Amino acid sequence: MLFGVGARRDIAKFFSGAVRFCTDRRGVAAIEFAFIAPVLFIMYFVTMEVAQGIEANKKVSRIGSMVADLVTQRPTVTPSDLDAIMRIADSTLQPYNRSSPKIVITEITISADAKPKATVAWSRKMENGAFSKGDPAKTPVTIPTSLNIGGTFLVRVDSYLNYQPILTWTAEQKQATGLFASFDNLPMSETYYLRPRMSTSVDCATC
Fold first, then answer.
1. Percent of the chain at pLDDT above 70?
2. Can you say whether residue 151 is alpha, beta or left, with left for phi > 0 and alpha for psi between -120 and 50 degrees?
3. 158 DSSP β-pair partners
4. Percent of the chain with pLDDT over 90
5. What is the rounded distance in angstroms from the CA atom of residue 49 to the CA atom of residue 165?
6. Quick check: pTM over 0.85?
7. How far apart are CA 93 and CA 170, in angstroms?
């Protein structure tokens, strides 16, 4: 005989234990949850981040329309007026506070020539919370053909935001983690045009 009684008994116990192990269903749910849980958590956080990104993008678009609406309701403005309007626009991004928007308000003069030319009348901007002049007066600009009507004025608002996903940002360090370098800053922008409504143009003598 190849195996003694004791050896055969041990082999039988081994196979019997192996059969019981393979047919035992206790703990299957826990094992399945251990495999599925990471996927569920990833899907949850990605969905949350996408929703926040879409909401931030909507707010960036809303900044342009809101600022243009407030500016074009006035026949004249001052730099302090424009700064106050841009502060209000900045607050619309809350509770998002991981980066600051850049807002540029520009009044555009369209000449009455046979081929109208669009140039900057005045410009004011906010960047990183600081206010300053935008493009110099007389700077040529490009506008949509449908708006290029000679002898008229336009107010253009450009809003920009480098959106930082919360998954790539640490509140303690106040900076991006660098774990996903390609997604640390997602550029969002919107350009909005509106014509003055209370007068032919919106004058800003000290801009």
1. 78
2. left
3. 104, 191
4. 54
5. 7
6. no
7. 19
- Tell me the HSE value of 10 on the side-chain side, using a 13 A CA sphere: 5
Question: Quick one: 49 exposed, middle or buried, by C-beta within 10 A (0-12, 13-18, 19+)?
Answer: middle
Mean pLDDT confidence for 187-200: 93
Angstrom CA distances, 188 to 71, 98, 136, 142, 159, stand at: 22, 14, 25, 20, 8
Q: Judge if the upstream peptide bond of residue 196 is cis by omega within 30 degrees of 0.
A: no
Tokens representing 43 are 């899907």
Question: Which residue's structure tokens are 């660098």?
Answer: 178
Cα–Cα distance for residue pair 166/145, rounded to 1 Å: 39
Q: How far is CA 80 from CA 67, 83, 87, 138, in A?
A: 14, 5, 10, 22
The stretch 36-54 carries a mean pLDDT of 86
Inter-residue contact 57 to 101 (CB < 8 Å): no
CB 144 within 8 A of CB 102: no
Backbone angles phi, psi at 103, to 5 degrees: -125, 130
Spatial distance between the Cα atoms of 63 and 93, rounded to a whole number of angstroms: 9
Q: What does the pLDDT look like over 48-102, one tens digit per residue?
A: 888 888 999 999 999 999 999 999 999 999 999 999 999 999 998 888 888 899 9
Distance in angstroms (rounded) separating the CA atoms of residues 71 and 67 = 6
